[in-house]
Every structure is written in C-alpha cells, then in structure tokens.
Description:
- By secondary structure, the protein is α+β, with helices and mostly antiparallel strands.
- Helix content is 21%, strand content 30%.
- It starts with 34 loop residues before the first helix and ends with a helix.
Amino acid sequence: MYVRTARVTTAALTTSILLTACGGGPADPSAPPTPAKAVLIEADLPEGWTASTSPTQNGSSPADKPECQVLVDLTEAGRPAQLEGGAAVASFANAAGASYETSVFELGEAGAAGFLKDVENAVRACGAYSVTAEADGGAEPPLPSRAQPLAAPSAGDGSYGFSVDAALDSDMSRHVNVVLVRRGGLIATSGSSSVGDRPDAKGFEAFTSLVVKKLTAQAP
Length: 220
C-alpha cells in the first residue's frame, strides 16, 4: 500500500473517496452500511492528524505467482483488483510525519468471509515471490518480496493481518503492514509502509484501532 516509484511495488492510497454518500441530511442510523460511511475521514482522527494527498493508483503490478496477486492488489491499491473504482480509500498523516492508509470495500457477507480466508491462504503460499513494477521506459527488474502473518486485533466478524518485505536493492527494503477487519459484507483495511526501518508498531496499532472503531460503529 502505499508509495509507488519506479523501484517500489507499493502505492499510496488516494485521499479521494471513490464512493460517496449522497444527500445533505443526517444519515439514517438504520440504513445499511456502505464503504463511504465506514471509511475514516479527517474528523474521526485526533488533533494533529490531517488528510494527505497521494497519487491515484491505477491497477496493480503483476506478481510472478498468481496466488500472490491478491497481496499485491492490497499493498498497492488497497482493494481487490475486481473492485477498481469500487472502494472508499483515504490516507492520512500525523504531526510526527507518519502516514497511514485505509480502504473499505463491499463483497457481501459470504464473499467478505471468503476473501479473508483467501488472503490468509495467499500469505501461506507467498513466503517468496516477485513483483514487476512499471517505470518510464518499461518494466523494472522484478523485486523479490516475502509475505508473513501479522498480528491483527480481534474485532468485527473476523480479522487478519500480514506484512510484506520487498527488496529494493542489496541493502534496502520496503516494509508494508496491512490489517483487514470484516463486519458483515464490508472489509476495512489499514496500512503503513516504510523504507529501511519497519513501520512504527504502536502508531500503526493506534491507527488500526480508529479504522476498526469507524467500521464497527456502522448499523448492521
């Protein structure tokens, strides 16, 4: 998720909300939850946080193993490939300069439960894979990547976390954390990435808690 350059396979989520609620009146608390209602906005965050501007991600880079593509989709675009243009996504920065990303998408209850299991299976299968990023003038050399499980909060109707390490060169790697939480047919993600040092665990945990709070506050 989350920063993409010619040498990086992760892409920043845009602050644009791709699905927005219509109408100017107060929301009906009994109305079904939607991605636009469940995604974080700046007003949900503590003082010192702001929405940040990021480039729009169009599609994901290809993985050399088909079973790993879902991980690339989540770390680059924040949602499954089939939902391009069908998710609410946003990114934020805090006063310390850390940045985090979130997305919410709808798959239906059975589809959302199955998607979490698909991601878990992909992490098991993708201890090693590579991703080819596009750059000006053609594709970059494949970037070796490794996925592993990441602790996720017990929340909603199910959750799962994973991390990806992508080798940018012989002595530099990008580290990406992603947590997915399901409530009914909605899945919310939180993500953070960094080059060199791993993402700040406490900051990521705090941001994920905000994502979960907004998701689980929605009417069933």
